[in-house]
Amino acid sequence: MAPPAKMQTAVLAGGCFWGMEAVFEQLKGVHKVTAGYAGGRASTATYRQVSSETTRHAEAVRITYDPRQISYGRLLRIYFSVAHDPTQLNRQTPDVGTSYRSAIFPQNVAQKQVAQRYIAQLNKAGAFSKPIVTRIEGGHFYQAEAYHQHYYDRHPDSPYIVRWDKPKVAALKAAYPDWVR
Questions:
Q1: Euclidean distance between the first and final Cα of the chain, in Å?
Q2: In sequence order, what are the residues at sequence separation of 6 or more whose Cβ sits closer than 8 angstroms to the Cβ of residue 173?
Q3: According to the model, what pLDDT value does residue 42 have?
Q4: pLDDT of residue 52
Q5: Which of 14, 43, 62, 103 could be joined to 84 by an S-S link, Cβ 3.0–4.6 Å?
Q6: Residues involved in catalysis
Q7: Beta-carbon contacts of residue 86 (< 8 Å; ≥ 6 apart)
Q8: Domain ranges, ordered by start, for the chain
Q9: pTM of the model as a whole
C-alpha cells in the first residue's frame, strides 16, 4: 500500500524490532511501521545474516508518518523515553550484539540536524544517569521477513512480547495518552 502524499519516513534502531514496531504503531499520525534492518555493509539483509553479527546491520523500524499529525521530534521523544534505553551499548533487554544497537538513520539533512540537537539537549539536561550511546548513521533499510512484521499483534502471548514489549506499550500509553490512537 503506497503512503498518501506528504508522508515522511523515519528509520530508528533500538533493540529487537518487535517492540519498536509495537510502540510506534500505536501513534496517531503514523501510517505504517515496517520491521527491517538498517546500516551495515552487505548489499542485502536477512534475519539469519544480521543475527550472525557479521553484516553490521541493526534491527530497525521504518516509520511512515504524516508530519502534519506527528513531528519527527515527537517520534524521537518517544524513541528516547519509552521505545528503548539509549544508554545501553550494543544491547537492549536480553538481546546482545551490534544488531541491537541504538541508532538513528536520518532520511535527510533536516532529520540529522534534529537528531543531533535532540541528543545534545538530552545530554545537557542530564536526562539519563549514563551517557547516551545512540549513534547517527547512514545506510539502506531492508524490510525484514514477513514473519517479523506485526509480530506483537500476531503473538500477544509470546513470552518475549509479554516480558519485554507489552511494558513498553503500556509505558507509552501512560506517558503520552493523547498521542495514542
A1: 20
A2: 26, 180
A3: 79
A4: 87
A5: 14
A6: 16
A7: 14, 79, 80, 102, 122, 128, 132, 133, 134
A8: 8-166
A9: 0.95
